[in-house]
Design a protein that fits this description.
heterodimer; A: little secondary structure; 9% helix; B: 11-stranded mixed β-sheet; 40% helix; globular
């Protein structure tokens, strides 16, 4: 942790361009919203 | 320079958009990032040394350069993943079990159940054929999802039961695992139905808007009487019967309750711990939301975020769907581009067996893309949905929230602009505010966990 900056997470999204895409995660609009597409609140199922 | 910085709940927060890295800043770093571009240290020192002192500015610059070196600041634009070019698999169906409803909700996008067409019930044959369609197009994915939707699906339990029986048989034959949900207004939930839904592990999405007067105003019975008393009693019975798990209480707020945080908290006070309350989407309606009301709505999300954290700190926290953002193990880039999947991974099925890109498109006849019997007959339209993602839509490509909302709702975009390629702006503004609050909430939860250890 730096003196002026605290990094909260370490999950580089860009790297998942090559490792992701298994498709096992739930369809996002199918869960609780039904009117507003939200993907960021899902977790990877890998 | 793809970053977004904001202040929520007293936290100075920086999101590095392409990497998804989140940082908490002190006020010096927060201000420096107004000028810093990764290669202009001299200009930054000249701008801020007098105000913050040269030592603090230089320390901060050093930390910023360290973040750049490890790819957590100013990370480059994402490329479209190769796997995204592959043929999509169908993951999920929304079965419109009944195009009819026993409530007359003022904001119903389904025109109180009929979706602008004749009222009707889905037959067991259509439902079972839809299950087979999903299996035929579901590829090697381990799971498949079906939502029993309406109108009101409890008006047609015979078909729900027949579909579940068929699903269990096909699971045994194929090894596929179905995750089932049922979206209901809770009016007809009786013990017999609850026993069945619990036994079959079907997640419930229970519609309720919050405070009694708010709920009754928009969710009356056909005769005009409010439905709150019936709904809240049945919801308690349902949630208790499944030990508080496997459900969401799902509300809609409108211009009539711009103080909607009170409705979320009213549901939490009722003991419902899994909540999703969302903005109504309506064009030219007195209850519709408009741009002038954004400051009020933003203030409600700030209030809700603070109260959410206070309750978690006090040991009586609740889950608010849109504050759940997984910063450590979130979806991959492919998922963030495929978004809701409407029209390529996800379809809605009408009582007649017609396929639409999603439940919101049902009744917009130009968007009928096929049937569960004959399959997709508009592959070009489905491909248009697949390709309408945040790296191809001009407004989204520039937006800091693009990898979290994934471009917003196609149906709302089409309803407001006649095109799925131009997002519905009010929805975007609310989405961005919710996301800022969600990130702040996740930081707050980490602090609470750290304090307890």
């Amino acid at each position: 942790m730096g003196k002026h900056i605290q990094t909260i997470n370490n999950a580089p999204l860009t790297k998942t361009a090559l490792t992701g895409g298994c498709g096992e995660c739930q369809t996002s609009c199918q869960s609780a919203c039904k009117t507003s597409c939200t993907v960021g609140n899902q977790s990877c199922q890998k | 320079m793809d970053i977004h910085k904001f202040v929520v709940n007293g936290e100075y927060i920086l999101l590095d958009v392409n990497s998804g890295s989140v940082h908490v800043l002190d006020p010096v770093a927060y201000r420096i990032l107004d000028v810093f571009n990764g290669a202009n240290d001299v200009a930054v020192i000249a701008e801020y040394a007098a105000e913050f002192g040269e030592t603090a500015v230089c320390e901060t610059l050093e930390e910023l350069h360290e973040l750049m070196a490890v790819g957590q600041l100013f990370s480059p634009d994402a490329e479209i993943p190769p796997v995204f070019a592959a043929k999509p698999i169908v993951k999920s169906l929304c079965l419109h079990i009944a195009h009819d409803c026993n409530l007359r909700c003022g904001y119903c996008f389904a025109s109180t159940g009929s979706f602008g067409h004749d009222r009707g019930l889905m037959s067991p044959e259509v439902a079972c054929r839809a299950v087979d369609f999903l299996l035929e197009h579901g590829g090697s994915r381990k799971h498949a999802e079906i939502d029993f939707f309406g109108g009101e699906p409890l008006l047609n339990m015979a078909t729900v039961r027949a579909a579940v029986e068929h699903i269990r048989r096909r699971e045994a034959e194929t090894g596929k695992i179905f995750n089932l949900t049922l979206t209901t207004n809770a009016v007809l939930l009786n013990q017999e139905i609850l026993d069945f839904l619990n036994q079959e592990n079907i997640q419930l999405i229970l519609s309720i808007d919050g405070r009694r007067e708010v709920h009754d105003r928009m969710r009356p019975f056909a005769g005009g009487a409010g439905s709150y008393d019936v709904v809240i009693a049945n919801m308690h019975k349902a949630v208790d019967s499944r030990q508080g798990a496997n459900y969401y209480a799902r509300g809609t707020y409108t211009a009539y309750n711009l103080d909607f945080a009170a409705d979320v908290l009213a549901l939490a006070d009722e003991g419902f711990g899994r909540l999703s309350v969302e903005p109504v989407v309506a064009k030219d309606a007195p209850y519709g939301l408009c741009e002038d009301q954004l400051p009020d709505m933003f203030a409600q999300y700030d209030l809700l975020a603070a109260e959410y954290l206070r309750r978690h700190r006090d040991g009586n926290g609740f889950d608010f769907f849109h504050f759940n953002v997984d910063l450590e193990n979130g979806p991959c880039l492919t998922k963030r581009l495929s978004g809701c999947g409407a029209g390529h991974e996800y379809y809605a099925v009408t009582p007649e067996g017609d396929l639409y890109p999603c439940h919101q498109f049902v009744g917009r006849d130009d968007f009928k893309v096929g049937t569960v019997f004959a399959g997709i007959d508009k592959p070009d339209l489905c491909d248009e949905f697949r390709q309408a993602h945040v790296l191809t839509k001009p407004e989204c490509r520039r937006c800091w929230a693009r990898f979290y909302c994934s471009g917003g709702c196609h149906a709302n975009a089409e309803a407001f602009h006649g095109s799925i390629h131009q997002p519905y702006e009010l929805g975007c503004e609310l989405q961005k505010k919710r996301l800022e609050c969600a990130i702040a909430v996740q930081i707050g939860l980490k602090r609470i966990a750290a304090d307890k250890n």
